[in-house]
Amino acid sequence: MSSAHLSSGRWNVGLIQEEARKQLLCLLERCEGTKAIVWDKSLAGPIGLVAKYSLLQEHDVIKMYPLGGGPLPQINVANIIFITRPQLDLMDLIAEIVHGEEGNKPRKEFHIFFVPRQSLLCKQKLKNRGVYGSFTLIEEFACDLFPFDNDLVSMELNNAFREFFIENDPTCLYQVARAIQSLQKIYGKIPKVTGRGPAANKVWELLQRLNREEEDIKQNNSQSSIIEHLLIFDRSTDLLTPLVTQLTYEGLIDEIFGISNTTVQLPAEKFHDSDESPTVMSLDKKEQIILNSGEEIFAEIRDKNFNGVGPVLSRKAKVISSQFDERHGDKSVQEIKQFVARLPHMLATKQSLAKHTTIAEMIKEVTDSSSFLESLQIEQELLNCIDTDKPNSFIEDMIAQKEPILKVLRLLCIQSLTNSGLKSKLLDYYKREIIQTYGYQHLPTLLNLEKAGLLKVQQSFRQYSVLRKALKLTVEDESEITPKDISYVHSIYAPLSIRLAEQLVQGGWEGITDILGLLPGPACGSGSSNLNPIIKTERRNSLTSENSNSEPPKLVLVFFIGGCTYAEISALRFLSQQEELNVEFVVGTTKLINGNTFLTSLIEDLQVN
Questions:
Q1: Is the pLDDT of residue 555 over 80?
Q2: pLDDT band at 510, cuts 50/70/90?
Q3: Which residues are paired to 231 by β-bridges?
Q4: pTM of the full predicted structure?
Q5: Helix residue ranges per DSSP H, 30-139
Q6: Complete DSSP assignment for 195-247
Q7: Sheet-wide strand order for 109-114
Q8: 462 CB-near residues (< 8 Å, 6+ apart)
Q9: Cis peptide leading into 198, omega within 30 of 0?
Q10: What is d(CA 176, CA 207) in angstroms, rounded to the nearest whole number?
Q11: Which of 31, 311, 444, 538 is the least buried, fewest Cβ under 10 Å from its Cβ?
């Protein structure tokens, strides 16, 4: 019973949803009687993609609560089930709730389901708090990946990049390896693997070890996988792309409003006529809007540059208007019957069109503002290596005016990365200005950004300048409405990560080994094939032959360790539509991110103004 849009592509993501749903319901059935679920807040949304509340209600779940401080309300249930990540701070919250329920009647049974793995440290913490013996069931809900769309899955690990590159904790890499292995159990063993970066290399080593240990993977060796190639991409090899402003429709929704588990919350009064229900509508009321390929109009405009969205919506409005006008005039019974049959789809399209027109208007209010345009102009100048080695007057003014610190840090990190670091005196100047303006509490912020490689002292060699020219990372005069290059997703900038994926499928990485040497970490993969092109040259040159279309596109899974942006996904979808490549890309990631969430996730105690 998977959602239709998840199963509509060649990669049937609905199988992942079905597997996770089946496992969750089996765990719930082991707890007889009525149930209340207490969610780790970070899991409520992702698990909602697996099983809706209505389905849980069918299995005797009558209450759901977020896992937070304080006791639960008085509830008359037989079971209290905690569904949580294996994090020590959450064990303290669970212990408080269990202690708070002691002596309450009727007596309840407690259960805990760890996602995706149990933790010995968490169990020990529960023992130390004196509640371990109170649990009837302590089980794993081994859901490594959550289904977002027919070409996208995410692990929803909020801090994978920070944990590995700042805290030197490799736990998340083991989880990534297990997630990829769980895909192989469903779809068959992926025959070719390519990776780039230190984290990717460690995941590849773990994957090889797990493949040797797991018998069911060995049994699947004979099963041909629908996924023909796996590209493991390490976020540390491209720190710049997440910081650059996304200019696709979906990317801007995420930049401005924030998308969480395919859902965005927007002011309800924008979508309803307040005159219709003046007593109900309130200023803080939110409209939850689901964004996925199951909606026809959104599927068409999600990956377009925002400047190309208006013409599409305008054309759709004219079409739907002409369709409704058909009801006027003399009609035969048969014609009326056909019109009535089309009416539900027409009404749904009209509603969808109104919704996205409203969202586009809200985005345009932001993108037309002088603040947005000035910031974007400076960003694009830095991407083109204009005045990157001296104090930027715009950044200085933002600091002086005490603009939100994330906005300042984002441009500052872009300047550092596009200049391959800042001169020592310039870096010290920026640090001093930020600390004097925003306070000494941001000193750890700056130190962590340095540790992550986002801020650094300039070396003599300019890596970005070489990469920009060799891989054509900036493209001038690219059409935003009818693009021919992936740079349209940022108007002038082609994401380095996707340029490398494009190079891999076009001619392989063998011809750019000198360029790859500028990136951190080694290349890795299955044998020497990791440097060979996925698409053979003669195959690309035979598109005009009789049998040119007989082969289906090769399916390539790009897995991002440390998160990826909606703009990167849009760029991969654009490449999938290029007939000469004969490749279809699908995406796995530890987390969907944008510039602000990427920076915030790096700093545990960042105070966002």
A1: yes
A2: confident
A3: 194, 558
A4: 0.91
A5: 41-48, 53-57, 88-101, 120-128
A6: EESHHHHHHHHHHHHHHHH-HHHHHGGGSPPS--EEEEEEGGG--SGGGSPP-
A7: 61-66, 35-39, 79-84, 109-114, 135-140
A8: 419, 420
A9: no
A10: 9
A11: 538
